[in-house]
Structure formats: structure tokens, C-alpha cells
Amino acid sequence: MVRRRPARGRAGGGRAGRLTRVIEFVLSLAQMLLAAILIVLVLMHSGKDTGLSGMFNPGQSQFGGTAVMERNLTRLTVVVAVLFALNGIALGFVL
Fold first, then answer.
1. For residue 40, what pLDDT is reported?
2. Is residue 59 a part of any domain in this protein?
3. Which domain holds residue 82?
4. Is CB count within 10 Å lower at the N or C end of the chain?
């Protein structure tokens, strides 16, 4: 009688299984960090009131610094949101 080895699955004990677990951990950690950063960036946007963005630049500047800050904050929020979405897609493929 010949004994066969059990087939190794995706999360087997081999080298590929360890690499998959490391990639999964790194992507999961990145997803949590991106989520926290995205929450903070969205809360910093001003709405009807000054919002949390007024915390860094209270009052109006004569040079329009608030508008520049809002524009840069919007750009940064979009970049982080795109990274969050792409990381979520990559994480879906790994899991």
C-alpha cells in the first residue's frame, strides 16, 4: 500500500503559503491604516461650518490660504481613497 501525501492547499506549510500569509497581513494592515487616515481626512473637510479644517487655519487669510489648504486636502483625500479602493481589490484577490 502506497501512502500519498496530503495535497497542500493555498495556505499550506510551504514557502508559497508563508508568502501568501505575509502578503495578506501586510495588505490587511495597510487597509486598516488607510481607513483611519481616510476617516481623519474626511472629517477635516469643511462643510457648512468651518469644520475641522478651521482648526489649523482659524479665520480668513487675506491671501486665501484656506482655499489652497482645502484644495490640497481634497487632492490628498482623493489619493488616499483611490489607494484604499485598490488595496481592497488586491486584498480580495489574496483572500
1. 95
2. no
3. 20-45+65-95
4. N
